[in-house]
Amino acid sequence: MPELPREEQLAAAFVDLADTLVQDFDVIGFLHSLAEHCVALLDVAAAGVLLATPSGQLVDAAASDERTRQLELASIEWGEGPCRDCFRTKKQIPDAPLATQSAMMRWPRFAPRAVELGFSSVVAAPLRLHDQVIGALNLFRDRPGPLADSQVRLGQTPADTATIGVLQQRAVSEQMTVTAQLQSALDSRVIIEQAKGYLANRRGTGVEEAFTLMRRYARDHRTRLTEIARQILQGTADTSLLTRRDQ
Amino acid sequence: MTHPALADYLRTLSSHTGTGMGPLPLGACADMLGLDGLGLLLAPGGRSAELVQSYGERTLALEDLQQVQGQGPSLDSARHGALMLLPDVADAPTFATDRWPGLLGAIEALNVHAVFSFPLRIGIIALGALTGHRTRPGPMSTAQLTDAFGLSDTIAQITIATATRAELPATPLLDEPGLYFSEVHQATGMLADQLDTDCDHALIRLRGHAFSHGRPLLDVTRDVLARRLRLDDNTDGPL
């Protein structure tokens, strides 16, 4: 990738980051590629991403390399660090040198570990769309001097694209789940009706009487009505339930 | 411009917080859309469509007919998310006569001359359909179409929102008033035992009998449930 001109790298990043509506979409894998694109595009040594659940819990990390990922995971555990602050405040954290007293005060565990790993400064940007923040992006430098503003802005663009991608994917999978719930509710209603008729014929009773039996059986055996209905239709129900009264 | 009364309903509907979908004012909605009847069908995941709310004296017959034939605008709309506008059943476009052979004449025989099916969908996901009809042919006005789109979108949102709260076995969404064709499923189960077959096949036999005798599915169903009709004596004729 470093051989490609900047514009082509950016285009490649966009194509990669827009490709979320595929099966078996893996959010963490996707955020890994965001981190890698940032390192390829920007003048930074490493990039890390923290991901939050829809309820606001920071849960997982992705990074351009393993040591950075470990640092981000530790930052979740410690409950401190630029990514966490950025996620909480929903605001960008401007370039902060790490080997300073103020950084050590602000992030007493994070800052020394980052310095140990060879990082000199960090910038954090929220992964946000309107008021929804799904995580944060850290950009680490290992050379002296702050990251140029234009670089920060350039990094924000793939971050925004990635945010939209994750939100889009969440929306689709949420709707799929709800559709499945609705479908299963409707299916079980239909199966119960079918089992009523089946049992009524088997026992020579009316449909309502068959339903009363099914309900009583389900209650006595602490089994769900849908499950009893399914057993009746598959012929695996208790014979006492399926036998005619006069037999 | 949304009809003010319908806007009221939409507000009431979308702020409904109780269990179930809340009382859908289908009658009033039909009035405002200039329709004689409205039916709400659910078919999540493209499954068979179930009529769960109904208004108008011909709605049940119109849906029954499509269930018998296994085809029609309601089913295409519910399963595939397609918008189906048939302002004049007697003068329908070729696609309709090709797609549903034998259906449109039978719809006319019910004295239904215009059918409009609006899909309930969220994004690409089809949940069901809202089907309206008129005894008088003629297109819906732009304002009426706008209201119908607003209504079907709102119902889709409410359906999704309700489904997330629905706890089995009590499913408020389907409890009031429930499945209009529940007797069809009961008769299907009864036939499955009589014919020693599975429910899918039993339903095909039931529909086949209704189709070949030109009878509504619910009529045949009631005969089966009352043990006036058995389909295992080979008097049913070839399917």
From TrEMBL, chain A:
Which Gene3D superfamilies does the UniProt record give? Answer: 3.30.450.40, Winged helix-like DNA-binding domain superfamily/Winged helix DNA-binding domain (1.10.10.10)
**UniProt xrefs under Pfam families:** ANTAR, GAF_2
Note the InterPro entries from the entry: ANTAR (IPR005561), GAF (IPR003018), GAF-like_dom_sf (IPR029016), GAF_ANTAR (IPR012074), WH-like_DNA-bd_sf (IPR036388)
Query: Which keywords appear in this protein's UniProt record, sorted alphabetically?
Result: Transcription, Transcription regulation
Annotated ANTAR domain residues: 172-233
Name recorded for this polypeptide? Transcriptional regulator
- Which species is the source of this protein? Streptomyces lasiicapitis
TrEMBL record, chain B:
Q: What InterPro entries does the entry give?
A: GAF-like_dom_sf
Tell me what this protein is called: ANTAR domain-containing protein
Among SUPFAM superfamilies, the record links this protein to: GAF domain-like
Tell me what organism the protein belongs to: Streptomyces lasiicapitis
Specify the domain of life of the species encoding this protein: Bacteria
What are the leading ranks of the lineage?
Answer: Bacteria, Bacillati, Actinomycetota, Actinomycetes, Kitasatosporales
